[in-house]
Q: What sequence folds into this?
Protein backbone atom coordinates (compact mmCIF):
# COMPACT_ATOMS: atom_id res chain seq x y z
CA UNK A 1 0.00 0.00 0.00
CA UNK A 2 2.71 2.50 0.98
CA UNK A 3 4.59 1.85 -2.25
CA UNK A 4 1.46 2.64 -4.24
CA UNK A 5 0.83 5.77 -2.16
CA UNK A 6 4.35 7.08 -2.85
CA UNK A 7 3.95 6.42 -6.56
CA UNK A 8 0.62 8.22 -6.63
CA UNK A 9 1.93 11.19 -4.66
CA UNK A 10 4.97 11.57 -6.93
CA UNK A 11 2.75 11.44 -10.00
CA UNK A 12 0.54 14.21 -8.66
CA UNK A 13 3.42 16.43 -7.53
CA UNK A 14 4.72 16.72 -11.08
CA UNK A 15 1.61 18.52 -12.28
CA UNK A 16 -0.40 19.62 -9.26
CA UNK A 17 1.00 20.99 -5.97
CA UNK A 18 -1.28 18.90 -3.77
CA UNK A 19 0.88 17.20 -1.19
CA UNK A 20 3.77 18.55 0.87
CA UNK A 21 6.78 16.23 0.91
CA UNK A 22 7.05 15.92 4.68
CA UNK A 23 3.37 15.75 5.60
CA UNK A 24 1.37 13.77 3.10
CA UNK A 25 0.61 10.12 3.49
CA UNK A 26 -2.68 8.34 3.03
CA UNK A 27 -2.10 6.07 6.04
CA UNK A 28 -1.66 9.20 8.19
CA UNK A 29 -4.98 10.58 6.98
CA UNK A 30 -6.53 7.25 7.89
CA UNK A 31 -4.97 7.19 11.36
CA UNK A 32 -7.94 9.00 12.91
CA UNK A 33 -10.29 6.28 11.70
CA UNK A 34 -8.08 3.25 12.37
CA UNK A 35 -10.16 2.00 15.29
CA UNK A 36 -13.51 3.27 14.03
CA UNK A 37 -16.24 0.96 12.88
CA UNK A 38 -17.58 1.76 9.38
CA UNK A 39 -20.85 3.12 10.76
CA UNK A 40 -18.86 5.64 12.83
CA UNK A 41 -16.87 7.10 9.94
CA UNK A 42 -19.28 9.97 9.44
CA UNK A 43 -18.55 11.18 12.98
CA UNK A 44 -14.81 11.63 12.39
CA UNK A 45 -13.81 15.29 12.63
CA UNK A 46 -11.13 16.75 10.36
CA UNK A 47 -9.42 20.14 10.84
CA UNK A 48 -11.31 21.58 7.85
CA UNK A 49 -14.64 19.79 8.34
CA UNK A 50 -16.42 23.07 9.13
CA UNK A 51 -14.60 24.95 6.38
CA UNK A 52 -15.66 22.50 3.66
CA UNK A 53 -19.07 21.08 4.70
CA UNK A 54 -19.78 19.46 1.33
CA UNK A 55 -16.48 17.58 1.48
CA UNK A 56 -17.15 16.59 5.07
CA UNK A 57 -20.46 15.06 3.98
CA UNK A 58 -18.57 12.88 1.47
CA UNK A 59 -15.76 11.77 3.80
CA UNK A 60 -17.12 8.29 4.55
CA UNK A 61 -16.84 7.39 0.86
CA UNK A 62 -13.31 8.78 0.67
CA UNK A 63 -12.19 7.05 3.87
CA UNK A 64 -13.25 3.64 2.61
CA UNK A 65 -11.05 3.96 -0.50
CA UNK A 66 -7.73 2.06 -0.48
CA UNK A 67 -6.43 3.19 -3.89
CA UNK A 68 -6.57 -0.36 -5.25
CA UNK A 69 -6.99 1.16 -8.75
CA UNK A 70 -10.06 -0.91 -9.63
CA UNK A 71 -11.56 2.43 -10.64
CA UNK A 72 -8.78 2.92 -13.18
CA UNK A 73 -7.42 -0.35 -14.58
CA UNK A 74 -9.44 -2.39 -17.05
CA UNK A 75 -10.04 -6.12 -16.70
CA UNK A 76 -10.37 -6.44 -20.48
CA UNK A 77 -7.40 -7.94 -22.29
CA UNK A 78 -7.50 -5.40 -25.12
CA UNK A 79 -8.07 -2.26 -23.07
CA UNK A 80 -5.80 -0.80 -20.37
CA UNK A 81 -8.17 1.66 -18.70
CA UNK A 82 -11.84 2.09 -17.79
CA UNK A 83 -11.52 5.85 -17.12
CA UNK A 84 -11.11 8.28 -20.07
CA UNK A 85 -9.23 11.02 -18.16
CA UNK A 86 -6.91 8.40 -16.66
CA UNK A 87 -6.25 6.94 -20.11
CA UNK A 88 -5.64 10.33 -21.74
CA UNK A 89 -1.86 10.45 -22.34
CA UNK A 90 -1.35 13.90 -20.78
CA UNK A 91 -2.87 12.65 -17.51
CA UNK A 92 -1.40 9.16 -17.47
CA UNK A 93 1.06 9.81 -14.61
CA UNK A 94 -1.18 11.98 -12.44
CA UNK A 95 -3.31 10.13 -9.87
CA UNK A 96 -5.61 13.11 -9.24
CA UNK A 97 -7.39 12.33 -12.51
CA UNK A 98 -8.41 8.85 -11.31
CA UNK A 99 -11.39 7.90 -9.20
CA UNK A 100 -9.30 7.07 -6.14
CA UNK A 101 -7.42 10.33 -6.60
CA UNK A 102 -10.70 12.23 -6.20
CA UNK A 103 -11.29 10.46 -2.89
CA UNK A 104 -7.90 11.55 -1.62
CA UNK A 105 -8.40 15.11 -2.81
CA UNK A 106 -11.36 15.19 -0.42
CA UNK A 107 -9.27 13.84 2.47
CA UNK A 108 -6.27 16.05 1.74
CA UNK A 109 -8.40 19.20 1.71
CA UNK A 110 -10.22 18.20 4.89
CA UNK A 111 -6.94 17.45 6.65
CA UNK A 112 -5.42 20.72 5.42
CA UNK A 113 -2.46 19.18 3.61
CA UNK A 114 -2.94 21.48 0.63
CA UNK A 115 -5.08 24.40 -0.47
CA UNK A 116 -7.64 24.46 -3.28
CA UNK A 117 -5.98 26.01 -6.33
CA UNK A 118 -6.70 26.43 -10.04
CA UNK A 119 -4.44 23.45 -10.76
CA UNK A 120 -6.44 21.27 -8.39
CA UNK A 121 -9.65 22.58 -9.97
CA UNK A 122 -8.52 21.28 -13.35
CA UNK A 123 -8.29 17.76 -11.93
CA UNK A 124 -11.68 18.16 -10.25
CA UNK A 125 -13.48 19.23 -13.42
CA UNK A 126 -11.71 17.02 -15.96
CA UNK A 127 -14.10 14.08 -15.57
CA UNK A 128 -17.12 12.97 -17.60
CA UNK A 129 -18.93 11.62 -14.50
CA UNK A 130 -19.51 8.41 -16.45
CA UNK A 131 -19.69 6.29 -13.29
CA UNK A 132 -17.55 3.40 -14.50
CA UNK A 133 -15.31 3.90 -11.46
CA UNK A 134 -18.33 3.37 -9.20
CA UNK A 135 -19.29 0.17 -11.00
CA UNK A 136 -15.76 -1.24 -10.88
CA UNK A 137 -14.96 -0.27 -7.27
CA UNK A 138 -13.69 -3.36 -5.45
CA UNK A 139 -15.40 -2.34 -2.22
CA UNK A 140 -18.78 -2.57 -3.94
CA UNK A 141 -22.26 -1.52 -2.96
CA UNK A 142 -21.55 2.17 -3.53
CA UNK A 143 -19.76 2.33 -0.16
CA UNK A 144 -16.76 4.14 -1.64
CA UNK A 145 -18.14 6.07 -4.59
CA UNK A 146 -15.68 8.45 -6.32
CA UNK A 147 -18.65 10.29 -7.85
CA UNK A 148 -19.87 11.26 -4.38
CA UNK A 149 -16.43 12.71 -3.67
CA UNK A 150 -16.31 14.43 -7.05
CA UNK A 151 -19.79 15.89 -6.63
CA UNK A 152 -18.72 17.38 -3.31
CA UNK A 153 -15.46 18.67 -4.77
CA UNK A 154 -17.21 20.44 -7.62
CA UNK A 155 -19.76 22.09 -5.34
CA UNK A 156 -16.96 23.20 -3.04
CA UNK A 157 -14.82 24.66 -5.82
CA UNK A 158 -17.81 26.52 -7.28
CA UNK A 159 -18.54 28.06 -3.87
CA UNK A 160 -14.86 29.05 -3.55
CA UNK A 161 -14.92 30.75 -6.96
CA UNK A 162 -12.41 28.25 -8.37
CA UNK A 163 -14.93 26.53 -10.57
CA UNK A 164 -16.36 25.65 -12.86
CA UNK A 165 -13.99 26.04 -15.81
CA UNK A 166 -14.27 29.17 -18.01
CA UNK A 167 -16.18 27.40 -20.79
CA UNK A 168 -18.49 25.87 -18.20
CA UNK A 169 -19.27 29.34 -16.89
CA UNK A 170 -20.07 30.35 -20.43
CA UNK A 171 -22.73 27.70 -20.95
CA UNK A 172 -24.21 28.45 -17.53
CA UNK A 173 -24.58 32.07 -18.64
CA UNK A 174 -26.19 30.83 -21.85
CA UNK A 175 -28.67 28.73 -19.88
CA UNK A 176 -29.65 31.76 -17.82
CA UNK A 177 -29.89 34.17 -20.76
CA UNK A 178 -31.05 32.00 -23.69
CA UNK A 179 -32.44 28.98 -21.80
CA UNK A 180 -30.16 26.60 -23.71
CA UNK A 181 -26.54 25.56 -23.23
CA UNK A 182 -25.42 26.68 -26.69
CA UNK A 183 -26.29 30.37 -26.61
CA UNK A 184 -28.68 29.94 -29.53
CA UNK A 185 -31.81 32.10 -29.96
CA UNK A 186 -34.68 30.81 -27.84
CA UNK A 187 -37.10 31.20 -30.73
CA UNK A 188 -35.10 28.66 -32.78
CA UNK A 189 -35.51 25.76 -30.34
CA UNK A 190 -38.16 24.15 -32.55
CA UNK A 191 -37.05 25.59 -35.91
CA UNK A 192 -36.27 22.02 -37.09
CA UNK A 193 -39.93 20.94 -36.83
CA UNK A 194 -41.03 18.86 -39.87
CA UNK A 195 -43.51 21.00 -41.86
CA UNK A 196 -45.82 18.07 -42.63
CA UNK A 197 -46.58 17.60 -38.92
CA UNK A 198 -48.78 20.09 -37.08
CA UNK A 199 -47.04 21.38 -33.98
CA UNK A 200 -49.25 20.83 -30.89
CA UNK A 201 -48.08 23.63 -28.59
CA UNK A 202 -48.91 23.39 -24.86
CA UNK A 203 -51.93 21.18 -25.37
CA UNK A 204 -53.49 20.35 -22.01
CA UNK A 205 -54.15 16.79 -20.83
CA UNK A 206 -52.12 15.25 -23.68
CA UNK A 207 -50.88 11.71 -23.16
CA UNK A 208 -47.26 12.65 -23.91
CA UNK A 209 -45.22 15.83 -23.68
CA UNK A 210 -42.19 15.69 -25.95
CA UNK A 211 -39.19 17.35 -24.27
CA UNK A 212 -36.67 17.98 -27.04
CA UNK A 213 -33.71 19.23 -24.97
CA UNK A 214 -30.88 21.48 -26.18
CA UNK A 215 -28.40 19.30 -28.07
CA UNK A 216 -30.99 17.77 -30.39
CA UNK A 217 -32.72 20.99 -31.49
CA UNK A 218 -29.52 23.02 -31.82
CA UNK A 219 -26.85 20.51 -32.84
CA UNK A 220 -28.14 17.02 -33.75
CA UNK A 221 -31.62 17.50 -35.16
CA UNK A 222 -32.22 14.15 -36.89
CA UNK A 223 -33.36 12.30 -33.71
CA UNK A 224 -35.84 15.10 -32.92
CA UNK A 225 -37.30 15.04 -36.42
CA UNK A 226 -37.54 11.24 -36.32
CA UNK A 227 -39.25 11.26 -32.92
CA UNK A 228 -41.92 13.74 -33.99
CA UNK A 229 -42.61 11.83 -37.21
CA UNK A 230 -42.91 8.55 -35.32
CA UNK A 231 -45.25 10.01 -32.70
CA UNK A 232 -47.40 11.51 -35.43
CA UNK A 233 -47.47 8.31 -37.51
CA UNK A 234 -48.46 6.25 -34.47
CA UNK A 235 -51.33 8.59 -33.62
CA UNK A 236 -49.90 9.54 -30.23
CA UNK A 237 -51.68 12.39 -28.45
CA UNK A 238 -48.67 14.60 -27.74
CA UNK A 239 -47.68 18.19 -27.16
CA UNK A 240 -44.56 20.37 -26.78
CA UNK A 241 -43.62 23.40 -24.69
CA UNK A 242 -42.18 25.04 -27.82
CA UNK A 243 -40.14 28.17 -26.96
CA UNK A 244 -41.21 27.90 -23.32
CA UNK A 245 -39.07 24.79 -22.94
CA UNK A 246 -35.92 25.63 -21.00
CA UNK A 247 -32.71 23.68 -20.55
CA UNK A 248 -33.25 20.84 -18.08
CA UNK A 249 -30.26 22.08 -16.06
CA UNK A 250 -28.20 18.92 -16.38
CA UNK A 251 -25.09 20.71 -17.72
CA UNK A 252 -25.14 23.12 -14.78
CA UNK A 253 -25.71 20.38 -12.21
CA UNK A 254 -22.85 18.31 -13.63
CA UNK A 255 -20.34 21.12 -13.04
CA UNK A 256 -21.52 22.00 -9.55
CA UNK A 257 -23.82 24.96 -10.31
CA UNK A 258 -26.78 23.57 -8.39
CA UNK A 259 -28.78 26.77 -7.94
CA UNK A 260 -28.72 27.58 -11.64
CA UNK A 261 -29.72 24.00 -12.43
CA UNK A 262 -32.62 24.10 -10.00
CA UNK A 263 -33.94 27.40 -11.34
CA UNK A 264 -34.24 26.26 -14.95
CA UNK A 265 -35.59 22.78 -14.17
CA UNK A 266 -38.18 24.17 -11.75
CA UNK A 267 -39.55 26.28 -14.61
CA UNK A 268 -40.01 23.20 -16.81
CA UNK A 269 -41.58 21.12 -14.05
CA UNK A 270 -44.09 23.86 -13.25
CA UNK A 271 -45.21 24.07 -16.90
CA UNK A 272 -45.43 20.29 -17.23
CA UNK A 273 -47.57 20.07 -14.11
CA UNK A 274 -49.76 22.94 -15.30
CA UNK A 275 -50.50 21.16 -18.60
CA UNK A 276 -51.62 18.00 -16.83
CA UNK A 277 -49.95 15.63 -19.29
CA UNK A 278 -49.66 11.94 -18.42
CA UNK A 279 -45.96 11.47 -19.12
CA UNK A 280 -42.88 13.11 -20.62
CA UNK A 281 -40.67 11.57 -23.30
CA UNK A 282 -37.29 12.93 -24.36
CA UNK A 283 -34.63 12.10 -26.95
CA UNK A 284 -31.77 13.46 -24.84
CA UNK A 285 -30.04 11.07 -22.44
CA UNK A 286 -28.94 13.91 -20.18
CA UNK A 287 -32.46 15.33 -20.04
CA UNK A 288 -33.88 11.88 -19.32
CA UNK A 289 -31.62 11.33 -16.33
CA UNK A 290 -32.07 14.89 -15.08
CA UNK A 291 -35.88 14.84 -15.30
CA UNK A 292 -36.08 11.36 -13.78
CA UNK A 293 -33.31 11.24 -11.14
CA UNK A 294 -31.03 14.29 -11.17
CA UNK A 295 -33.89 16.54 -10.07
CA UNK A 296 -33.93 14.84 -6.67
CA UNK A 297 -30.49 16.28 -5.82
CA UNK A 298 -32.05 19.70 -6.31
CA UNK A 299 -34.97 19.06 -3.99
CA UNK A 300 -37.40 18.57 -6.87
CA UNK A 301 -39.39 15.56 -8.00
CA UNK A 302 -40.79 14.61 -11.42
CA UNK A 303 -44.38 15.87 -11.75
CA UNK A 304 -45.27 12.94 -14.03
CA UNK A 305 -43.76 9.72 -15.36
CA UNK A 306 -40.53 10.28 -17.33
CA UNK A 307 -39.77 7.84 -20.16
CA UNK A 308 -37.17 7.62 -22.91
CA UNK A 309 -37.84 7.44 -26.62
CA UNK A 310 -36.76 3.80 -26.91
CA UNK A 311 -39.24 2.83 -24.21
CA UNK A 312 -42.11 4.58 -25.97
CA UNK A 313 -41.38 3.38 -29.51
CA UNK A 314 -40.96 -0.22 -28.31
CA UNK A 315 -44.39 0.09 -26.73
CA UNK A 316 -45.84 1.46 -29.98
CA UNK A 317 -44.27 -1.34 -32.03
CA UNK A 318 -45.66 -3.99 -29.68
CA UNK A 319 -49.09 -2.37 -29.99
CA UNK A 320 -48.85 -2.48 -33.78
CA UNK A 321 -48.95 1.31 -34.09
CA UNK A 322 -45.50 1.43 -35.68
CA UNK A 323 -44.50 -1.12 -38.30
CA UNK A 324 -40.84 -1.11 -39.35
CA UNK A 325 -40.92 -3.12 -42.58
CA UNK A 326 -38.35 -1.41 -44.82
CA UNK A 327 -35.03 -3.35 -44.81
CA UNK A 328 -32.05 -1.18 -43.90
CA UNK A 329 -29.37 -3.66 -45.01
CA UNK A 330 -26.66 -2.43 -42.65
CA UNK A 331 -24.43 -3.82 -39.89
CA UNK A 332 -24.60 -1.86 -36.67
CA UNK A 333 -23.04 -1.82 -33.22
CA UNK A 334 -24.56 -0.06 -30.23
CA UNK A 335 -23.00 2.33 -27.70
CA UNK A 336 -24.56 2.40 -24.22
CA UNK A 337 -24.73 6.06 -23.14
CA UNK A 338 -23.69 6.59 -19.52
CA UNK A 339 -26.81 8.58 -18.58
CA UNK A 340 -29.30 5.97 -19.79
CA UNK A 341 -27.10 2.92 -19.20
CA UNK A 342 -24.91 2.86 -16.10
CA UNK A 343 -26.88 5.55 -14.29
CA UNK A 344 -30.46 4.44 -15.10
CA UNK A 345 -30.19 0.86 -16.39
CA UNK A 346 -31.70 1.06 -19.89
CA UNK A 347 -29.71 -1.72 -21.54
CA UNK A 348 -32.30 -4.14 -22.89
CA UNK A 349 -34.66 -1.56 -24.38
CA UNK A 350 -32.32 -0.28 -27.13
CA UNK A 351 -31.39 -3.84 -28.05
CA UNK A 352 -35.06 -4.78 -28.19
CA UNK A 353 -35.60 -1.94 -30.65
CA UNK A 354 -32.66 -3.13 -32.75
CA UNK A 355 -34.31 -6.57 -32.95
CA UNK A 356 -37.34 -4.97 -34.64
CA UNK A 357 -35.30 -3.39 -37.45
CA UNK A 358 -35.42 -5.44 -40.67
CA UNK A 359 -32.25 -5.99 -42.66
CA UNK A 360 -29.99 -5.15 -39.71
CA UNK A 361 -27.08 -7.26 -38.52
CA UNK A 362 -26.22 -6.42 -34.93
CA UNK A 363 -22.71 -6.94 -33.52
CA UNK A 364 -21.66 -5.99 -30.00
CA UNK A 365 -18.48 -4.25 -28.96
CA UNK A 366 -16.38 -5.78 -26.19
CA UNK A 367 -17.13 -3.13 -23.57
CA UNK A 368 -20.91 -3.00 -23.18
CA UNK A 369 -23.68 -2.63 -20.60
CA UNK A 370 -22.33 -1.46 -17.21
CA UNK A 371 -18.75 -1.68 -18.48
CA UNK A 372 -19.35 0.44 -21.58
CA UNK A 373 -16.54 2.87 -22.44
CA UNK A 374 -17.70 6.47 -22.03
CA UNK A 375 -17.77 8.66 -25.15
CA UNK A 376 -16.09 11.42 -23.13
CA UNK A 377 -18.60 14.21 -23.73
CA UNK A 378 -20.50 14.43 -20.44
CA UNK A 379 -19.81 16.09 -17.11
CA UNK A 380 -18.68 19.27 -18.88
CA UNK A 381 -15.70 17.54 -20.47
CA UNK A 382 -16.50 18.20 -24.15
CA UNK A 383 -16.74 21.95 -23.49
CA UNK A 384 -14.09 22.27 -20.78
CA UNK A 385 -11.56 19.69 -21.99
CA UNK A 386 -12.23 18.99 -25.68
CA UNK A 387 -8.95 17.12 -26.24
CA UNK A 388 -9.80 14.57 -23.55
CA UNK A 389 -13.35 14.21 -24.89
CA UNK A 390 -12.07 13.71 -28.43
CA UNK A 391 -9.58 11.10 -27.24
CA UNK A 392 -12.34 9.11 -25.51
CA UNK A 393 -14.63 9.27 -28.55
CA UNK A 394 -11.84 8.19 -30.89
CA UNK A 395 -11.12 5.16 -28.70
CA UNK A 396 -14.77 4.16 -28.97
CA UNK A 397 -14.84 4.70 -32.74
CA UNK A 398 -11.88 2.33 -33.10
CA UNK A 399 -13.59 -0.27 -30.93
CA UNK A 400 -16.79 0.04 -32.98
CA UNK A 401 -14.92 -0.24 -36.27
CA UNK A 402 -13.17 -3.41 -35.06
CA UNK A 403 -16.55 -5.19 -34.87
CA UNK A 404 -17.01 -4.91 -38.62
CA UNK A 405 -20.03 -2.64 -38.21
CA UNK A 406 -20.71 0.11 -40.71
CA UNK A 407 -22.84 2.13 -38.25
CA UNK A 408 -22.15 3.16 -34.65
CA UNK A 409 -25.64 3.75 -33.29
CA UNK A 410 -26.79 5.06 -29.93
CA UNK A 411 -29.68 7.00 -28.38
CA UNK A 412 -27.82 10.03 -27.02
CA UNK A 413 -27.44 13.18 -29.19
CA UNK A 414 -24.54 14.38 -27.03
CA UNK A 415 -22.62 11.14 -27.61
CA UNK A 416 -23.45 11.42 -31.30
CA UNK A 417 -22.14 14.98 -31.45
CA UNK A 418 -18.85 13.95 -29.85
CA UNK A 419 -18.51 10.86 -32.05
CA UNK A 420 -19.22 12.89 -35.18
CA UNK A 421 -16.60 15.51 -34.32
CA UNK A 422 -14.00 12.88 -33.45
CA UNK A 423 -14.67 10.99 -36.68
CA UNK A 424 -13.73 14.06 -38.73
CA UNK A 425 -10.10 13.45 -37.72
CA UNK A 426 -10.18 9.73 -36.92
CA UNK A 427 -11.61 8.84 -40.35
CA UNK A 428 -12.50 5.27 -39.37
CA UNK A 429 -15.18 5.23 -42.06
CA UNK A 430 -17.94 4.23 -39.65
CA UNK A 431 -21.22 6.14 -39.90
CA UNK A 432 -22.01 8.02 -36.69
CA UNK A 433 -23.72 11.20 -35.53
CA UNK A 434 -27.43 11.93 -35.95
CA UNK A 435 -27.60 9.89 -39.15
CA UNK A 436 -26.84 6.74 -37.16
CA UNK A 437 -29.19 7.45 -34.23
CA UNK A 438 -31.30 4.43 -33.33
CA UNK A 439 -34.59 6.37 -33.44
CA UNK A 440 -33.61 7.71 -36.87
CA UNK A 441 -32.97 4.16 -38.07
CA UNK A 442 -36.44 3.18 -36.84
CA UNK A 443 -38.00 6.11 -38.70
CA UNK A 444 -36.20 4.98 -41.86
CA UNK A 445 -37.42 1.41 -41.38
CA UNK A 446 -40.95 2.81 -41.05
CA UNK A 447 -40.52 4.75 -44.32
CA UNK A 448 -40.73 8.12 -42.60
CA UNK A 449 -37.24 9.44 -43.39
A:
Amino acid sequence: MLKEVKKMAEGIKRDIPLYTKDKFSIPYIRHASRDAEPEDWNTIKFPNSDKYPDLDAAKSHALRCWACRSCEISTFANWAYICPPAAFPKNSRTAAYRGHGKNYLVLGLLQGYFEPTEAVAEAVFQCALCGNCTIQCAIGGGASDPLVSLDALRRTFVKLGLGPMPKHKRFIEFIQKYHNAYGEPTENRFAWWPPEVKKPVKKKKADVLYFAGCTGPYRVQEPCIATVKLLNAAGVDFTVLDTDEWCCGSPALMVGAWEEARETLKHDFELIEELGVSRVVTTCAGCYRQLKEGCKKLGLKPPVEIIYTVELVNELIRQGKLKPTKPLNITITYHDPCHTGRHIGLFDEPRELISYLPGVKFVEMERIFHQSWCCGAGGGMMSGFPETAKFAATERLKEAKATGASYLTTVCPFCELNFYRAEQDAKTGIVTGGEADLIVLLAKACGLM
About this structure: Residues 394 and 426 are 6 Å apart (CA to CA).
